[in-house]
Each structure stands twice: as structure tokens, then as C-alpha cells.
């Protein structure tokens, strides 16, 4: 019989449209979750959260949470959850929830559309930040910042081919260049110039997930 897996809960990051509740399987990427322990969640600042017991109130291993943002709230919500086993061993992790207004990220006359999800996990989907329309502009500069405002990436003339942000650091961060950034919510600024010589800026949140 192998040794039991130690309790280890891991941070999560998700995204939901404005005014839209989201169910989050916060335990899916955790280790050593007990069946007879406890799960507690802090109150969010800009919405409500409810624990779903999965129809098994005495077993927390299948629990999820549902976060409902306040009406009109747009931005980043952060909550914490704590799992404890029957012996009193506890671990805490953070859930970052990005609430976005998908209707306001782009204007009708903008040639640019940024996919705000990066999942560099080798499955061939969202492996890098895809920016639709880069072939329709003359030049560009992309800057990405973490939640503390530290630049983690900067590049010019983004092309969705050999010059892309694939979740690795290239900026004045505490990580070494080419280190993969931790999962979480980031902020990008995409400055670009059209072929007509007009300067434009697109900025929004993006999030990295594994």
C-alpha cells in the first residue's frame, strides 16, 4: 500500500462574462483531498459565492463553488478557499476570477481582436496569445504586466508565427527570461499603427491557465 498523498491545494484562475455566474471546480487540480474534511470559502468583495456539495454533504471531494458577480461588476475578483482533513491539517489557495465585458473589448472599426486565453500545456489549443488582424496593421508593440504592474513581456511587430507570447517571460520580472509564468490574470497593452498611419491602443485583461 502506497503512502497517502499529502494535502496540497493549488491556485486557480478563471474568466466569466459580466453578469454571468460561473461554477468552478476548485478541487480538480488539487492533491490529497479528503472525503471527510471541511471546505470553507472567503466572501468575495464584488459578488456572492456558494459551495455546491455535489449531492454528498459528507464528502467534500466532489464539491465545487458557484461565483455570481454583482450586477455590472467588471474586473478581478479574488477569493480564498481552505481545505482541512479530519486530523486538522489544512491548506489554502486563491481563486482569481476575471469578469469581462466581452461586448466592450473591441470597436466595430478595429482590425484587431485579441484572444484573452493562453493555455501553454501542449494540447495544441491556445498555446500562445492569438491576435487576429495583425496582418492588417503596419507595426505594433505588445506589453504584458502581472497583477502587481511588473512587465513580464514586451515585443514588437507581433505576427502569430515566430514572434508570439506563449506564456514565457520576456520582461523586467523576477523570473528569468523564457521561464513560464504562473497561472493567473495579467494585463496587456497592444499599441499598433494601421496602414493609414492611425495610432490605436487595445488593452484588456488576459489569463494564463494550465
TL;DR?
This protein is mainly beta and 210 residues long.
How would you characterize this protein structure?
This protein has 210 residues and is an all-beta fold. It has no helices and 14 strands. The chain has a five-stranded mixed sheet with strand order 9-14-13-11-12, with no helix packed on it. Pfam families: Big_9 (PF17963), CHU_C (PF13585). This is Gliding motility-associated C-terminal domain-containing protein.
Outline the fold blueprint.
Elements: E1 12-17, E2 22-24, E3 38-41, E4 47-52, E5 64-69, E6 75-84, E7 90-100, E8 113-114, E9 117-118, E10 131-132, E11 137-145, E12 151-156, E13 184-194, E14 199-208
Question: Under CATH, the topology of the largest domain is which?
Answer: Immunoglobulin-like
Let me know the average pLDDT: 87
**Total domain modules:** 2
Number of strands: 14
Number of helices: 0
Which radius of gyration do the C-alpha atoms yield?
20 Å
Give, in spatial order, the strands making up the sheet with the most strands: 9-14-13-11-12
Provide the CATH top-level class of the largest domain. Mainly Beta
Question: How far do the termini sit from each other?
Answer: 31 Å
Protein structure class? mainly beta
Amino acid at each position: 500500500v502506497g503512502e497517502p498523498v499529502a494535502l496540497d491545494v493549488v491556485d486557480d484562475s478563471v474568466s466569466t462574462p459580466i453578469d454571468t455566474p460561473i461554477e468552478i471546480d476548485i478541487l480538480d487540480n488539487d492533491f490529497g483531498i479528503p472525503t471527510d474534511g471541511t471546505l470553507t470559502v472567503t466572501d468575495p468583495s464584488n459578488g456572492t459565492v456558494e459551495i455546491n456539495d455535489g449531492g454528498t454533504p459528507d464528502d467534500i471531494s466532489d464539491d465545487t463553488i458557484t461565483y455570481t458577480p454583482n450586477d455590472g461588476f467588471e474586473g478581478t475578483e479574488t477569493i480564498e478557499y481552505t481545505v482541512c482533513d479530519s486530523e486538522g491539517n489544512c491548506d489554502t489557495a486563491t481563486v482569481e476570477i476575471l469578469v469581462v465585458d466581452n461586448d466592450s473589448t473591441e470597436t466595430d472599426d478595429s482590425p484587431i481582436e485579441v484572444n484573452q486565453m493562453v493555455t501553454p500545456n501542449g494540447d495544441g489549443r491556445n498555446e500562445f496569445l492569438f491576435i487576429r488582424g495583425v496582418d492588417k496593421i503596419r507595426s505594433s508593440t505588445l506589453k504584458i504586466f502581472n497583477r502587481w504592474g511588473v512587465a513580464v513581456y514586451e515585443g514588437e511587430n507581433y505576427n502569430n508565427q515566430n514572434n508570439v507570447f506563449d506564456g514565457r517571460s520576456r520582461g523586467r520580472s523576477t523570473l528569468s527570461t523564457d521561464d513560464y509564468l504562473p497561472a493567473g490574470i495579467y494585463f496587456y497593452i497592444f499599441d499598433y499603427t494601421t496602414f493609414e498611419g492611425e495610432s490605436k491602443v487595445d488593452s484588456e485583461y488576459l489569463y494564463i491557465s494550465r
